[in-house]
Design goal:
- Helix content is 35%, strand content 23%.
- The chain is α/β, with parallel strands linked by helices.
- It has a domain of 173 residues: 3-Layer(aba) Sandwich (Rossmann fold), CATH 3.40.50.
- It has a six-stranded mixed β-sheet with strand order 6-7-8-3-9-10, sandwiched between helices. A four-stranded antiparallel β-sheet has the order 2-1-4-5, covered by helices on one side.
- The protein is globular.
């Protein structure tokens, strides 16, 4: 009735998987997102330049990570690929346990909408919607209304962010700090696995910037949100639990929390190394 198992299986001599053959999930690693052997190349031929050069790194669950580097270091490119906003030339990328490498546009759009939050330097609020409409936009795009639990979360965010009196105001009626608070509420409203913040304090005054950074820190520490923030600002990075430094498309340093002065010194050291060992076109030896 049943076929005999192959001799090697019955005797425990089945093929043994190598480490390379074993598929370890992002969850197994305690990460919210990761990339493996990631390369992004612009141009072609002798003039091709790698914005990212064989990068493997993960964003830890429930941690606030700052990604730093000089202009052209690859930090924004890394964030855009990890968030599914750009594609890699080579390598693999995951959000949670879902590999997004080669994922179709529709599936990628749905995944981003439901599992990823975005906070941009330019706020990216819809000008024709009031603050509440902007906060609820991810639900509208998903074709549904917030559940009771989600509504309670939104109410809590509105209260924490202090934007209750401004919910019926449109973006042009809000200050920069208020617009960024609305953007943060929108990013956190669906309780995404991961929030990407691209220079979130770049257009804010110092007081508003500090408030935004404290809100991101609280989202990570008190609510378990995974935050990945691209910044060139040492003060902003000092709020993070972990600081990654990129140089010439590679991860050149990975540090736990540091003071603003320590981060500034590390940035100068990284810049000095980059000057001493400038990037070479793809395929050209250093």
């Amino acid at each position: 009735m049943y076929e005999d198992a192959p001799t090697e299986r019955r005797e425990g001599r089945g093929p043994i998987l190598s480490v390379e053959d074993m598929e370890i999930t992002t969850t197994d690693l305690g990460l919210a997102a990761r990339v493996q052997h990631l390369t992004k190349t612009y141009g072609s031929g002798e003039g091709a330049v790698a914005a990212l050069d064989d990068v493997s790194v993960g964003i830890r669950r429930g941690q606030f990570t700052a990604i730093m580097g000089a202009s052209g270091s690859g930090k924004s490119t890394l964030m855009h690929i990890m968030a599914g906003l750009d594609t890699a030339t080579r390598g693999r990328a995951w959000i949670g346990d879902t590999e997004i490498t080669g994922l179709g546009d529709l599936d990628l759009t749905i995944l981003r909408r439901r599992r990823v939050g975005f906070i941009f330097q330019a706020f990216n609020l819809v000008p024709t919607l009031d603050a509440l409409g902007n906060i609820l936009l991810p639900f509208e795009l998903d074709g549904r209304r917030p559940s009771a639990i989600e509504r309670a979360r939104i109410d809590g965010l509105v209260q924490t962010l202090g934007i209750g009196p401004r919910l019926r105001h449109r973006p042009h009626q809000l200050s920069g700090g208020q617009q960024q608070r609305v953007a943060i509420a929108r990013a956190l409203a669906t309780a995404p696995d991961l929030v990407f913040a691209d220079e979130p304090t770049g257009n804010l005054d110092s007081a508003s910037g500090r408030e935004v950074l404290q809100l991101l820190s609280d989202a990570s520490r008190e609510h378990g949100q995974s935050i990945a923030m691209v910044t060139h600002d040492a003060v902003a990075a000092s709020h993070a639990d972990r600081v990654l430094f990129l140089g010439d498309g590679r991860i050149v340093a990975d540090h736990p929390r540091r003071s603003a002065d320590e981060i500034a010194a590390l940035m100068l050291s990284t810049a000095a190394d980059a000057t001493a060992h400038p990037a070479q076109p793809v395929g050209v030896a250093a």
